[in-house]
Each structure stands twice: as structure tokens, then as C-alpha cells.
Write a structure and sequence with these properties.
- By secondary structure, this protein is of the alpha/beta class.
- The protein contains 15 helices and nine strands.
- It has a five-stranded parallel sheet with strand order 1-2-3-5-4, sandwiched between helices.
- It binds thiamine diphosphate.
- The site of thiamine diphosphate (TPP) has 21 residues, from helix 2 and helix 6.
Length: 455
């Protein structure tokens, strides 16, 4: 068996063994989606397992968070601080491998996922953050901020309304560095998708302004590589790669059924699946030595990438000291020293001041001092008083058509700081969480309090 295939199977069976040991979890997604995850993580993803917080890393979101063992296997194999003991402790109290990924618990996990659709929106927030910081801080010859945002999304993710809102906005904004892989396996928790979900997804996303590609065979590593490469070349549209996979791939009695979705395969079926895919039944949690070495290349590569970036940032600091100091503050989450010093007093009177009016005034004061402060409302700027005056619109420059009603004064580009979410509260909330998770950004969003139920 070729190294690629052995590596894919290592991801599969680490995941299956962990779920079986825990006697709970989701083996179906890792079995089907391991090949695309393998290609992405070993041939494209720019990251540094020794420093999960390296600022210019590519972002990866496992939006279908129930498939968490897929992510944990990848993190373990590529050398993140997630040792085998943690894999063996999957879903146990106090472990770093909870049932669904949690930011702050597992190194390399940027957002908590599990509620389907949320990760889909979070990734769009991350791509917006990247676009904004790149537009504001990059200079000719200094692409300090330059990374992709990837996500693995599932049927359930695409069904959720929040994904529709966020995808529509991402298409409008032409977020070309957003690349989503769709685990198109035709099965959900309790049914096959022909029961509930039959529109043409490529056409649907095409209509949102996305670039779409379809791969017929989710095990075809070269086709996946070609598609991700083509998605990277597409700079004016977000990409959705629809990969036809099979849930529970390789399981003789459970593949292509909901039974593979959210329950352990069972000891006998685990054995049959391993035999079917030419994998040793024992030892459990088997990682062949050559696979370990192969994945561990990410450690050296990651260190090299970050070192290179640090040198570039040093040269940038010499050339553009003010911008570098500002960006450094954003990356490390620091406020300017004098932030509170000159906040103007608000005189009181009998009637008082509406909280939204007061908030709007304070925001105008803060906004020039906090370049990482960006956001907007779900089409309620005139009511929530959340337009940042003269700070421009976060938009693709190619769509500029003059002085449009509702647009803020200032630039119409990715350097704009007013994010017009449109009437999309769910999307706004998920995107804002993604903006925060990216780092460098202090997002705000607003709507009427009663609509916060939708967020
Ligand atoms: C918002 C939300 N609703 C319901 C669920 C419960 N749930 C978990 S997975 C799932 C369906 C999964 O189908 P799919 O996304 O296709 O994943 P796959 O079966 O391919 O693993 C559901 C309904 C959830 N996680 N989030």
C-alpha cells in the first residue's frame, strides 16, 4: 500500500478506535472524509504545530464538529501538543479531546463547533478578518497578512439557515481566499438526504457567487489536490468543492447508512472494516512509523514558515515602523495606552440620553483609536447608531458604484471598517464570532434586542 493510502487509513482508524474505546462518538465522517482532510493538511495547509497561535497561519474549521476525531487525529499526527494519551481519552471528562471541538481546550482548535452551520459562518468571519488586515497593513513587497481560510462542511452545515445567510454575504464580498470542502455523503443523523435536501448545491452556491467544483470520487487524492489548487487560483470568488464521499467508508455493513453517523461501529464491525481496508486489526491506535515521520514533516515546515514570516515582519518593521507597531498591538490584543484618557463627558439632563445614542457617540470616539474595531448591523445602522463615521465600507473594490444609499463615507474596499451584514442576523453573529476567533479584530454587531433571539 502506498504511503498516501496508509496515511489516510491511519487517520480513519485512529478515529474509529477512539470512538470505539469511548463507546460513543461519530466514526462515519472521519471514515469518509479522511482523504480530503489528508490532502488539505499535508499538501496545502500552512501552519505551525509547535505554535498553534502563529498569526499568519491558514485557518481551518471543522464545521461538522461531530466529526471531531478527524480533527484530533490530524492534530495528533502533525505534531500538535495532543499526545496519544489524549486520543485514547476521547470524550472523557477533563481530556483535551471533548466530543465536539472546543476553543481553548485543544491546541489547534480555533472555534467551537457542533451546532451545525456555525463553523460555516465562523470561517467567513475569519476570511473577512484576513481581508481587512491584509488591506490595511500589507505593502508592496510585504504581504504580512496572507492566508487562506478552509473549512470542512457537511450536509447538515449546508442545510442550516445560518449557512445560507453567511454564504450569500461571502459571495457578495467576493472572498476569494475562502475554500470550503463539502463532505457530500448524502446521509445525515437519521435519514438520507433525498428525504429532506434535494436542491442542486453547486447551482445554489453558484447563484451566491461562489466558484464550485465537483469531485465524483472522494477517495481520489489527485482530483482533490487539483481542485484545492484551482480554488486557490480563484481570487474573486469563495470556493465550494463538492466531494462525493461515503459515510462510514469501508464498513461492510454500515457504509452509506445513518448507523455509521453517530454510534461506534461495534467491535465486530471495526474488525471487518479494518480487514476490508487492509488494516491490521491490532494493535489499536496503530500509527506506522513511516506515517508518523511523514506527518511530522509539518513540524519542520511549520517552524520554517513561521521563521520566514518573522524575518519578513522584522524587515517590515524597519520599513514601516508605525504600521508594524499598530499591527503588533492588534495581533497581541493590546489597547493604546491613552485609550480612556480623553473620553468626552456626556452632560446629563432631565430626559437623559438613549443608550443606543450614547453608545454611538462612544463608538465614534473609540473608532479612530482602535483600528481593529470593525463591524456593523443587520441593516439597522440608522437605528442602532453603529456606523463608524468616515471609516468606509468593507467591500470588494470591484463592486464600487459610487455614492450608494446607506454606505459610509470613506473607502469602498477591504480596508473599510463598516461591515454591512444586510438583514442576516444569524450570519452576522456567526461571522462576528469568526472575526474574534481570527485575532487582531474587535468585532461589534448590532440589531434590535428582540432579534437577539436569532443570534
Ligand atoms: C444546529 C444543530 N442541529 C442539530 C444537530 C444534531 N446533529 C448532529 S449531526 C446531525 C446531522 C449530521 O448530518 P451531516 O451533517 O450530513 O453529517 P454526517 O452524517 O455526514 O456525519 C445532526 C442533526 C446539531 N449538531 N446542530
Amino acid at each position: 500500500m502506498q504511503l498516501d493510502q496508509i496515511s489516510v487509513n491511519t487517520i480513519r482508524f485512529l478515529s474509529v478506535d477512539a470512538v470505539q474505546k469511548a463507546e460513543s462518538g461519530h466514526p462515519g465522517l472521519p471514515l469518509g472524509a479522511a482523504p480530503m482532510a489528508y490532502v488539505l493538511w499535508t499538501r496545502f495547509l500552512q501552519h505551525n504545530p509547535s505554535n498553534p497561535r502563529w498569526f499568519n497561519r491558514d485557518r481551518f474549521v471543522l464545521s461538522a464538529g461531530h466529526g471531531s476525531m478527524l480533527l484530533y487525529s490530524l492534530l495528533h499526527l502533525t505534531g500538535y501538543d495532543l499526545p496519544m494519551e489524549e486520543i485514547k481519552q476521547f470524550r472523557q471528562w477533563g481530556s483535551r479531546t471533548p466530543g465536539h471541538p472546543e476553543r481553548g481546550v485543544t491546541p489547534g482548535v480555533d472555534v467551537a463547533t457542533g451546532p451545525l452551520g456555525q463553523g460555516f459562518g465562523n470561517g467567513i468571519g475569519m476570511a473577512i478578518a484576513e481581508g481587512y488586515l491584509a488591506a490595511r497593513y500589507n505593502r508592496p513587497e510585504f504581504e504580512i497578512i496572507n492566508h487562506f481560510t478552509y473549512a470542512l462542511v457537511s450536509d447538515g452545515d449546508l442545510m442550516e439557515g445560518v449557512a445560507a445567510e453567511a454564504a450569500s454575504l461571502a459571495g457578495h464580498l467576493k472572498l476569494g481566499k475562502l475554500i470550503y470542502l463539502y463532505d457530500d455523503n448524502h446521509i445525515t443523523l437519521s435519514s438520507a438526504t433525498p428525504v429532506t435536501f434535494t436542491e442542486d448545491q453547486a447551482q445554489r452556491f453558484g447563484a451566491y457567487g461562489w466558484h464550485t467544483q465537483s469531485i465524483e470520487d472522494g477517495n481520489d487524492l489527485e482530483a482533490i489536490e487539483r481542485a484545492i489548487h484551482a480554488a486557490q487560483q480563484e481570487t474573486e470568488r469563495p470556493s465550494l468543492i463538492l466531494v462525493r464521499t461515503h459515510i462510514g467508508y469501508g464498513s461492510p455493513n454500515k457504509q452509506d447508512t445513518s448507523a455509521a453517523h453517530g454510534s461506534p461501529l461495534g467491535p465486530e464491525e471495526v474488525k471487518l472494516t479494518k480487514q476490508n481496508l487492509g488494516w491490521p486489526v491490532e494493535p489499536l491506535f496503530f500509527v506506522p512509523e513511516e506515517v508518523k515521520l511523514h506527518f511530522h514533516k509539518a513540524l519542520d515546515q511549520g517552524k520554517h514558515l513561521e521563521d520566514e514570516w518573522n524575518s519578513k515582519f522584522e524587515a517590515y518593521t524597519k520599513e514601516y515602523p508605525e504600521s508594524a507597531a499598530e499591527l503588533n498591538r492588534l495581533m497581541t490584543g493590546q489597547f493604546p495606552h491613552n485609550l480612556e484618557k480623553d473620553i468626552p463627558p456626556f452632560p446629563t439632563d432631565d430626559k437623559g440620553i438613549a443608550t443606543r445614542v450614547a453608545s454611538g457617540k462612544v463608538m465614534q470616539y473609540f473608532s479612530p483609536l482602535l483600528p481593529g474595531f470593525i463591524g456593523g448591523s443587520a441593516d439597522l445602522n440608522t437605528s442602532t447608531h453603529t456606523e463608524l463615521k468616515d471609516q468606509g465600507n468593507f467591500e470588494n473594490p470591484a463592486t464600487a458604484i459610487g455614492d450608494l444609499q446607506g454606505s459610509a463615507k470613506g473607502v469602498w474596499s477591504y480596508a473599510g471598517r463598516n461591515l454591512q451584514f444586510g438583514v442576516r442576523e444569524h450570519g452576522m453573529a456567526a461571522i462576528s464570532n469568526g472575526l474574534a476567533a481570527h485575532g487582531g479584530i474587535i468585532p461589534f454587531c448590532s440589531t434590535f434586542l428582540t432579534f437577539s433571539d436569532y443570534m
